[in-house]
Amino acid sequence: PRVPAVLKKRLVKLVVNFLFYFRTDEAEPIGALLLEHCRITKEEENVFSISFIEEPERKYCFECATEEQCQEWVEALRRASYEFLRRSLIFYRNEIQKMTGKDPLEQYGISEEARFQLGAHRQ
Amino acid sequence: MKLNERSLAFYATCDSPADNSGFLYKRGERHTAYHRRWFVLKGNMLFYFEERDSREPVGVIVLEGCNVELCDSAEGFAFAIRFGGTKSRTYVLAAESQAAMESWVKSLSRASFDYMRLVVRELEKQLQEMRQGLAGGCGGTREPPGPWKPKPSGSEERLPALPSILPKENGCAVWNNVPGAQRPPDPSGCGGLDEEANPRPPPLPPRRRVSNNGEAASAGAGSPSTFCRLHEQYSREVARLRQDWQQRQRGPRP
């Protein structure tokens, strides 16, 4: 994959599971990308791309000022989805339960919430 | 403002499990008529469809920085999603039963990314403290270890890999991982193994850092007391709203 011929300078802001982008002199974002079911790919130097599962050939490419910055963004974006957070929660919950024999969510009264369950049948 | 609508629609309709779904009446923006729509809550996104079998959502409400409240309404079982800010709209919805209303208010109140992050950080902290306690000869743990038996040598403590069931939980979710990995990507980027060639433990959940280009939203202090207080607050609020609603009830439900 190549960096497209036309690069536009944008201010980019990661807020929860959205990546907002702005023209550098404007306060309102031009647009946003929802970061669920997406793949973040490190491309050539200073460049990463975001593509989405339902349209994998379409890549949103971003060129950073430095390689270090590029790595930071790649890592941040890979963790930016709600679904990633959910998986982390389930993982920690299981680990704590294995170690202590107790469900850590019980003390907060949320152990039965559909949101925190593993498995397909949560309705 | 542009959005990657196709991706949104995909998220709404893919077969990952919803956190809640059902018919709700939604009050129109300009006219006060209610329209019955099929609602699907996934993560921090509340999608609504014209019909249950519609292929694409009609709209979506992003549930960050909002309050969910019960409201006075001739419709009954009504509640509102209220956002701060002068330009923000309040969404008024009505369920078809008391139980449905309570279920929706509860699930919507806990739908934000920030809330999830708070819970994850709390658990992460607990787990860290437990592991530190173990490494120090198990004297420092808060929780009784339960079935775990102390091992003579600290280095034998093998930090577990993610259970293999996880990638299958949500068939679409694997896409976001490094190809071939059974777990979320490693934060340090130095490969999947630690010094002892054991599988590296899964990375800690994201720390929102200030980047050159801007600052991501940060959650609260993340300490256990903050989390407990927040939780207390939520449950008290829900209980109080429920009480208010019950007291305001007059006559039989339509």
Automatic annotation (TrEMBL), chain A:
A GO cellular component entry from the record? early endosome
Q: PH domain location, by residue?
A: 1-82
Task: Write out the GO biological process terms.
Answer: endosome organization; receptor recycling; retrograde transport, endosome to Golgi
> Which InterPro entries does the UniProt entry name for this protein?
Boi1/Boi2-like, PH-like_dom_sf, PH_domain
SMART domains tied to this protein: PH (SM00233)
Q: What is this protein called?
A: Pleckstrin homology domain-containing family J member 1
Provide the species name. Rhipidura dahli
UniProtKB/TrEMBL annotation, chain B:
**Source domain of life:** Eukaryota
Q: Which GO terms describe its biological process?
A: endosome organization; receptor recycling; retrograde transport, endosome to Golgi
- Which residues does the annotated region (Disordered) include? 134-161, 173-230
Which Pfam families does the record match to this protein?
PH
Keyword Endoplasmic reticulum in record: no
| GO CC annotations on file | clathrin-coated vesicle; cytosol; early endosome; recycling endosome; trans-Golgi network
Low complexity: compositionally biased ranges: 211-225
**Main role?**
Plays a role in endocytic trafficking. Required for receptor recycling from endosomes, both to the trans-Golgi network and the plasma membrane.
Could you say which protein family the record assigns here? Answer: Belongs to the sesquipedalian family.
Q: What is this protein called?
A: Sesquipedalian
Source organism of this protein record? Rhipidura dahli
